[in-house]
Each structure stands twice: as C-alpha cells, then as structure tokens.
Amino acid sequence: MTRDSRTIRVVIADDQRLVRDGLQMMLSMLDGVQVVAIAADGDEAIAAAAAHDPDVVLMDLRMPRTDGVTATRRIRTEFPRTEVVVLTTFAEDTEIFGALRAGARGYLTKDASAEDIARALERVVRGGADLTPDVQRRLLEHLPLSADVFDGEAPDGLTEREVDVLRLVARGLSNTDIAAALVLSQATVKTHINHVFAKTGVRDRAQAVAYAYRRGLMS
C-alpha cells in the first residue's frame, strides 16, 4: 500500500486516548503505513499536519477546542496535499455533509476493520474517495435526483455518468460535492465536466445549467 513507492504517513486525531492507542496499534500492523503523529483535538491535528506533512489525517469529528470539521477545513486549505478521512462514532447527516464539504475524502465509523481503513487510505492517497454504503445512500437521498428522471437517449452523445455530473452541476454543487456524491476523484469530475462542455458547446457552468433544463435533463 504505497503511493509512488512511499509509505503512507498518517496522523491520528481523536480525543479519546483508548481510541488513539487502538488505532495506532491497528495501523502499525498494516504494511506501508506509518503513524507519524497523534493529536488529541483539532488544534493538535492542524499542528501535526504542519509539522509532519502527512499523507492522511484520520479525523474524529467531536473533539474539544477545535472540532473535526473545522480542523478538516483548515488542513485541506492550508495543507492541500494532506487528505482527511473521518473516523467517528457519530454519523449524523449534518456532520457527514459538513465534513465532506470541508474536504474530507473518506468517512468511516469506528467499528471499521483494519481492512476498511487500509482501503480508505489507499483510495484517498490515489485521489479517490471512500465512503461507507450508508453514507453514500444518505448523500443520494440528500440530492433529490429522483425528480429528474430522464428516460430518453442522452443528447449530444453524453454518457450516463456525464449526465449524472451535469445534473449535479445544475443543482449548484461544487466539484468537491459532486466527487463525494458519486464517489469519484475531483480530477475525474473535472474530466467529466470538460467532456460535457466540449460535447454540448457550453462555455461555463451557467450555460451548462441552462442546457440541462433546456434539453429536459432537469425537471
């Protein structure tokens, strides 16, 4: 499990010592993973990201001083090379969406196995996303796509996935939100959007929205 033949360097951020110790022990048994720092709150997580330049921060959400969503947002803004995977006991919609909007690329609950965590680390360092099936379901329920069912042939040679991306663009989602909703990397979302623009002849997102409604892709 490496990126460019390098060990994946991880910071663990959790306010419970027992959880931190357990995660550190679990990760120590994974090949190609190194825990470079431990943080007990969001402030310490931000400081650890600054000091150690980790590949991934495993982030709890409910921590003292600075919470996990705020810490995620700061880390992704100040240290964009560092990815964040949320690992928490709680999975309320407001926290899920807040963490994803802040830039988290993965979301796991604390009953995740070593294999689950290993998979998440591998995916996010390669530019992908890793969300539990329950989180994916909640995201799709949050986006009322069922109102926009399109049974005809997609216009202008658009693929099914390009239509999915175009609909989310038309709903005003950012590339980050689209990537989270469809479990894609942001680079892949950008590629799909570029293909949509090229095939439809639109020049920007505003024109893409108008196109989606004009061609019956949105209700």
In words, what does this structure look like?
With 219 residues, the chain is α/β, with parallel strands linked by helices. The protein has 10 helices and 7 strands. Strands 1, 2, 3, 4, 5, 6 and 7 form a 7-stranded mixed beta sheet that branches. Helix 7 (160-170) packs across helix 10 (205-214) and helix 8 crosses helix 9 (186-200).
How many beta-strand runs? Answer: 7
The CATH homologous superfamily of the largest domain is termed Response regulator
How much of the sequence lies in strands comes to: 15-25%
CATH hierarchy, class of the largest domain:
Alpha Beta
Q: Report, as a whole number of angstroms, the end-to-end distance.
A: 44 Å
Model regions low in confidence, pLDDT < 50 over at least 5 residues? 144-149
Number of helices: 10
Which helices and strands occur, and which strands form pairs?
Elements: E1 2-3, E2 6-13, H1 17-28, E3 33-39, H2 42-52, E4 56-59, H3 68-78, E5 83-88, H4 93-102, E6 106-109, H5 114-125, E7 130-131, H6 133-142, H7 160-170, H8 175-182, H9 186-200, H10 205-214
Task: Characterize this entry briefly.
This protein is α/β, with parallel strands linked by helices.
Features:
219 residues; Rossmann fold; Arc Repressor Mutant, subunit A; 2 domains; seven-stranded mixed sheet; 7 strands; 50% helix
